[in-house]
Amino acid sequence: MATGCGFATPQSVLRGSRGTAGNVGLAAFELVPDDAIDDAAHLLATHAHLLA
């Protein structure tokens, strides 16, 4: 999704840096199949009118 700062914001969340996302960091991650990502992108585009 589009943000004002497309790279710095996700990186600060992943690294747990202080900023608008707080000091959370990445605790875990999930692997999902490509079909699930495609389905989620389609859902966002058609129902929320967002392109991801």
The radius of gyration computed from the alpha-carbon positions, rounded to a whole number of angstroms, is: 13 Å
* Nearest-integer average pLDDT: 75
Strand element count: 0
Classify the beta-strand content into a percent band. under 5%
Q: Given the helix and strand composition, which structural class is it?
A: mainly alpha
What summary fits the major beta sheet? none
Q: Note the run of SSEs as H and E.
A: HH
- Helix tally equals 2
| Unreliably modeled segments | none
Cα shape: flat
Give the end-to-end Cα distance, rounded to a whole number of Å.
Answer: 5 Å
Helix content: 40-55%
Descriptive labels:
52 residues, mainly alpha, 2 helices
What does this structure look like?
The chain is mainly α. It contains two helices and no strands.
In short:
The chain has helices at 8-15, 34-48. It has 52 residues and is mostly helical.
List the helices and strands and how they pair.
Layout: H1 8-15, H2 34-48
